[in-house]
Structures are given as structure tokens and as C-alpha cells.
Fold these 3 entries.
Entry 1:
Amino acid sequence: MDSDRIPTRLAVDWSHRRAEVELASGLVVASPLTGRAEEHEGEIGRTDYDPESGELTITFRWGDTAIFELGPAEAPGAPVVYLDQNHWVMLARLQWAPHKLTAHREGYERLMGLARDRTITLPLSSAHAFETGRKDGRQRRELAATMLQLSRGWQMRNPLKVRREELLCAIAGLQTDAPLRPRPVFTLDPDALFDASDYLGESSPDRDLRARLTWASAIAETMIENEREDDEDARAKRERWASMYKAIGVGLGESNASREEKRAAARAAILEDFANDLAGAAAAARLDSQAWEDWLENSEDSIATMPATRRIQEITAQRLSNPQYPWRSNDLSDMHFLSCAAGYADFVLAEGATTHDLRLAESHVPAGARIPRSPAELVDAIEAELL
């Protein structure tokens, strides 16, 4: 191919309803959008893909931009820092209304500087998307823009998928001498945020690129759209879950259960929560009934090797040990997402109660993320590691 005819930019200008291809010669070839694309309305004004860098720049209708790394990539090239939602809110406040941020301002300024310099990777999760979806108006637009800009397309694979793969690898490992590990937890794979995702790459480079371009635009549009979302059924399920665990904790306290009995109760609760995942893993590994019973009997040793699942079990045991613990519906998300992140990220900045519990669990779980108590402590630890 003539070098002057090599594409150097692929763009969709939604505002003017046209697609553009810029060639190395500087020539721009444009054609009108047709069909459903022509009718599309949303918050994205244009997208520009740079084949050389492998990055997509999304420009919103009000002028702000967000750059997505598209991948594929085996792993992030910088330390992974997972932030609980409240810290994303503080970063957005720093960006859009800095006069309103007083507590920990210096730490957040340093953290944002590291993210903008690409010294760290700040992945998004479906918990972040869900919490952002509960907002609307200017507050949602500003929060979503900050998250999209600083995450650059990196995601944490859905914790339900991670725990299933931990269980599957452990159970399938009974059938092979080769150690099995879950897929990379932090990824650029399309749709990795969600439980249903099983993206394994498309059949050709062109199809794979199309899937990645589509995903980046879709998640940006979903995060930024001005429509509050709140799933009443999901909220009710979380509340029932919290009530059930509160009742277990109260019952253990009233019966003066020993520490060992409380840990056994936590293990039983975890196995009950994971019942469908366990059955699926056993079926996939084609275990006979005796091998399955043997695994269940010795599952404590197996779970002890699982970075995410073991942390969920430890936090559950700690909280069940306190009959006064105020179980909340948000605990379901915190325990699973922050435990997953703590098992596989380099650093996790969580909310206060889960920070305490994750740090308390460190001597009982596989090595994982460092859990600082504040933004300044986080940045100090990152900078020390990078020296």
C-alpha cells in the first residue's frame, strides 16, 4: 500500500452525521452516516481513533474529552489502584468544584496527578457504574467524566466472574497437575464490567477492533447519560441479604458461639451464597459425587488459596463475630468488589469500615493489595514503590 494512503485517523462526527478517514497524506475522506447511525442521539459529539497509539478519543457535546486505551493488553503497564466510589466522588469534586474539597485535598491532588501522568491505573467496576447511575444532572455528568478520563478504559472484571473462575480453577485443578488461574482481573476486554461477560476476542483483528471501539463508546454513553437508574428489585435483594446476615450474627451472639463456631458459620454462609457457582464448577470439571464430597469436606484449605473468595470469607467471619455489626445493603457490594480488588490490585483505597476489615484479614489471606488509610498514605506508598 502507498504510504500516503495509510489511515492515520478514523473518526465519527456525530454532530455533523459523518464518518471520516484521514490518510497519511493529510487527505480527509468523509461520508454521511446512514440508517440507525444517522438517527443516533447522545452525549458523544465525536470519536477519533488513532491506529498508531491504539487509543480512542471521545469528545462530549460540551467539549470535554476522554481517552480510552483499547487493547488488547495482557496487563496494565502501571500499578493498579482501585478506588471505592466515595474517593471517585472526591476526585470529581477536586476537578469540578475544588473550593468544596477541604479534607485530604493534598492527597487527592497528588493522586490525580499520578493518574493524569499515567503513572497508575485506576480501573472502573460495575459497582462504580451502578453508583454513578443513581445520579443525574450536572453531578452525574461531572462524576462520570472524571471517572472516564482517569480510568482510560481499564476495568476490573466483574467479581462474580472472578470468584467463579477461582472456584473453577481450584476444582478443575483436581483433574490436572497444571496450576490454573483466573483470567487477568484488570483488563481492557469489552464488557468485562458485567457478570455476563465472557469476551475471548473476535475471530479477526478487524472484528476485534470494532468490538473494542463499540464498547468504549457504549460505556462512555452509559456512564454519562442524564437518566437516573435505580433497580428496586436489586435493592430489595440486597436488603434481604443484609437482614439474613444480621440475623445470623445476632443468633451467634445469643448462643455464645465460640470463635471456631463463628468461622464455621461464615464458611457455611459463603458456601450457601456460592452454591450455584460451586455446582457449575463441579459440573465443568466433571467431578463424580465422591470427588465432589471430598472437595467440599476439605474446601477450607482450597478457599484459603483464593485471593478474592478468601477475603470475602474473612470479612464475613469478622462481621458475624460482632452481633452489633450494623449490616447494610451496601455491604454486599463493598465486601465483594473491595475483596476482589484487594486480592488482585496493587493498592486499594476503601471506605473506613472495609479498610479496617481488609487490614485485619491480611494475616489470613493470600498476599494482595496494600490497604492505605488515606489518599496521602496511598500516594506515599505508590511513590515509595516506584523509586
Entry 2:
Amino acid sequence: MLAVDLGATSVRVAAIDLAAPFPQVEVVHRWHHTPLEADDGHLRWDWPGIVSHVMAGLEAGLKAGPVSSIGVDGWGVDYGLLGDDDRLVDLPFSYRDTRSAGWEATAAGIGVERLYSATGIQLMGINTVFQLAHEQPERLDNAKRLLLLPDLLVHELTGFRAAEVSNMSTTGLMDARSRDWSDELIASINVPRDLFPRPVVAGTQAGTWRGVSVTVVGSHDTASAFLGAPAHQVARDPDVFVSAGSWVLVGTERAEPDTSDATRRLNFSNEAGALGGVRLLKNVVGFWVLEGCRSAWGDATVADLVAEAAAVTGPVPRFDAADHRFVSPTDMLDEVLAATALGSATPRAVVVRSVLESIVDGVARVIDELERVCREPMGRIVLVGGGARSELFVALLARRTGREVVVGSAEATAIGNAVVQGIALGRFADRADAGRWLDNLEVPT
């Protein structure tokens, strides 16, 4: 299987052999990218660059061996607008752009309780509902269809136009119970209803590319990562899932959405699972903070920065890892120094250690809140994503929470993407069957 994973800092195409005795991921192509400042001053994604590198990765995958299927996942909330000619009206905006800076007033106008009771989604300025509420009228006038970015890439490959529900659920415009677009909320932001494509579920066949089947997977990367985690062993208490990348997602799986007032006040998201159920989770700022500081430190790698931080002893100041100030600051290092009251001459190892400790504090706080909302104790932590490669991060997480940390794959998203393809093509009977294969996962050391 070829798994295309659109990350907010890198695009990856990975090959996963589902006939192998345990999950192994070979990244056949990787391209690092960042939002571009367009002529209008807004941050937009280099969509032609993303597409060209995905195509290069798929070509490399085809050359490496026979391919049974292709699946696409990516980050949530962002979208592209297609015109009459079925082409993009212009480059998609990045969620890190400031155009929805007045989102709190928009939320108040719609009604915070009304929004949450319908969608169950954490209120954040990056949500699609707030981006669309601040959309330029001329762009909407020229648009005939809206596609979330992973779905837009599937459209590039096959011409298929639809919205997979796990990613739909991140928009703040999907009814959490019907798993369809909320006509009422769409009307509240004055956006044409006919822009929105029909919902589809993971496992739907979208068409073919170069004669290879393209399967709709859990197109939100977190939905795929949940499916690629080694979390299927029998445990007394529910696992806490932590996906540590540009963002750190902390949550657990539930059968039904919880849109209670208590859950709303704690600002949890009820995101649709790719194969049913709900991911009750919350976003914490992640390694994007270190990515944002790298240029001020001579572009040292994140791995090198974390290694330096491991030598820091003694307490370091911490900041609120849920603070929206870190989404898209003008100068990330200045923002961190201001939040921690550290001076500009502070060694970078101390700053990095402060960032890591703050992220871990944020994770611990969300786990405490999960126990309050779910009214039951949470069990071990299942850690995947780039943070799973860091021994320091794992150690800090175990020490701060006092919990067992089960380390999964840094490429859990690609694995979960491939699992859905495998179920669609009959390699696995269902998720439980795939889980037995995942239990053989080689854990990085």
C-alpha cells in the first residue's frame, strides 16, 4: 500500500507491506514545506509544490514494486475552492494565517453553546467554520465546490469529489450525531450550501490513478494515527492516545459524542473516528514551536535541539501549551521568551527544555480533564508520531504523569492509512483483525 501523508511541515509518501509479519514503513519520498506569504500578505499553501512532490513519491512507489492501493490523509480544517473549470480558484489559505483573527466574535454571534451542542468540536480560531466566516466574497462567488485538502488531493488523482467524515468533523460544520453537514450552521455564516460535497466513509473506493485503486481512508491524519497505534491489547482502563508532531493531540476513544456543557467548558473535541466511534481529544501546542525557533538558532535540527535539552538540569519555567499565541506568532522565539520570562541571552538548550516541559505539562493537564469528563480513570499512554523518537520526551511524559508509556511508531499515521486500505481490499476482516497484526509492531528504541 502507498500512504500519502500531508503534514503541515512535510509531505510523505510511504510504502507499507500488509503481507509482512509486522508493520514496517518505508518512506519513499519526503518534502519539507511551509506556508508561503502571498502577494496579498496572507499565508497560503504551495499546492502545486505539494501535488508535484506527492506525484514524485507515488512514481517512486510504483518503481519500487507492485502497488495494490493508494490512500491519502492530512491535516484538518484547511480547504481549497474549485471553480467552474474544476480547478482551484487560487492557492488554499493556511490555518496559520491571521484572516480569522476575529473568530471569538463570530463564535459569539453564532452562539458558543449552539456550536458545541451541534458539532462537539473544540473552539479554535483555525476551525473551518471561522475561516469560511471570514472568507472573501469574490472567492466564494467564483467557487463551485469546497474540498478539504486530503480530499482535494484525492480529487487531483481521480476526479472524485467528496468529504470523508473524520476530516469533516474538524470543520465545526458537521453534525456530530448525523455525520452530515449542518445546514443550520452553514447558513449562519452565509456560505452557499451547494459548495459542500457529499460525505463518505473510510473504505470508499474513489477511483484509480495509473491503474491503481485509490481508497478513501481516515483522511484526517489523527484519525489514521489512532488506527496505527499499538493500542489493541486488553487493558483495565481506557488508553490515552498521544500523537506528538507539529501539534500534540491528547485523547481517548469513545462510542458516542459527548456534547455536554462540562465537556464544552473544558474545550474538548469529539472528532469522528475513521471506522466509527469518536475521538474525544484536545490539541496542545507541539513541536511546531521548536520548528518556529530553528531559524533563530542557525537551523539546527529538532533532534539536535532535543539532545541538547537532555543535558539541562534543574527547574525551567513553563508556559500554557494550549495558548493560541503559539499558532502563528511573528517571531516564535520571542513569543516563547515572553511567555516564560526568559532573557534573550538564555542558552537555547534551556529554552528547548522549557518548551518540552510545557508540552508535557499540557498533556498531563488534558489527561486529568479526560478523567473528569469520562468519570473513570485513564490507563497507560500510547505515544506515536515524531515525539515517539525522542527518549527525553518519553521520559518526561512518564515522569510527569506517573503512567506507563507505550511507544508506537513515528509513522503511525501511514500505518493507520494502510490499515483502512487493507480492510477495504480484504487483507483484514475488520479493525480487530488489523489490531492483531499491529500488536507485532516493532517499537523504536
Entry 3:
Amino acid sequence: MTLARQGVGLLQGMHVETRTDPRDIPYHWIGFRRGPRDQGSESDIDALNAGRVVVTPLRYDRTDEEAYRVLATALPRR
């Protein structure tokens, strides 16, 4: 068992395609390019590929804290 950091994933970028639906209304489709990427040192992917059991502590919060602090001075909050 080993402690590891979460790897950066396999996304290499994204692209936007403009399409037209059956009613002749344009819309945009977002797609992602995937492929091999360097996962960094101590990554979970490297540890898994080496056959180890991996412990990776995770936290989920996508709020941009710096932008939030700036906007908090100008916008009201509940």
C-alpha cells in the first residue's frame, strides 16, 4: 500500500464544434482530446501501474477562491 497524489489525468485539451440540429438551429458541441500525459512524480497512476494499492486523499471544491474574494467586494451575498 502506498500514498500517492492524484495524477493530472488524460485530457490533453478540448475543442468546440459548431453543428446544426434537425430543426436547422446551430449549437456547439464541446469535445475533449485524450491521450497519454506525464502524470508527475508520486502519481496514483504510476503507483497503480506498478501494481500497488493506492491511497489518495481527495477534496472536491472547484470554486476559484481568488476570484470569489474579488467579486465579494462588489456583489451582494445572501
